Amino acid sequence: MRVYWTDTALQHLLAIHTYIAKNSPQYADIVVDRLTRRSQQIAAFPLSGGTTIIQLSQ
User: Fold this and answer.
1) Statement: residue 10 has pLDDT above 90
2) How far apart are CA 24 and CA 18, in angstroms?
3) Which of 4, 32, 35, 38 has its CA nearest to residue 19?
4) Angle between helices 7-21 and 25-44 (to 10 degrees)
5) Which of 5, 25, 35, 47 could form a disulfide with 21 if both were Cys (CB 3.0 to 4.6 A apart)?
6) Which of 47, 54, 50, 14 minimizes the C-alpha distance to 31?
7) pTM of the prediction?
8) What's the rounded Cα separation, in Å, for the pair 39 and 32?
9) 3 state SS of 40
10) 12-28 b/e with 16+ CB inside 10 Å = b?
11) Is the dihedral of CA 22, 10, 7, 54 positive or negative?
12) What is the DSSP string of 1-38?
């Protein structure tokens, strides 16, 4: 499986980095690295995440 980052997702990732970097550039790099590594994990193991069933009342 491949994970594709949309333009919007990449913009959000950059916004997250920019926001965190105001206080800690080093931590901003760490957070973005963790997020990108997690996407690689999802690609390698697509069933590794949990699932939640939400019952909606009508």
Assistant:
1) yes
2) 10
3) 32
4) 150
5) 25
6) 14
7) 0.73
8) 11
9) helix
10) ebeeebeebeeeeeeeb
11) negative
12) ------HHHHHHHHHHHHHHHTT-HHHHHHHHHHHHHH
Q: What are 11's two structure tokens?
A: 């913009």
Q: Is 52 helix (H, G, I), strand (E, B) or coil?
A: coil
Q: CA 9 from chain center: how many Å?
A: 8
In this model, does residue 7 exceed pLDDT 70?
Answer: yes
Residue type at position 47: L
Which are the contacts of 5, defined by CB distance < 8 A and separation ≥ 6?
13, 39
The residue assigned the tokens 């550039």 is 25
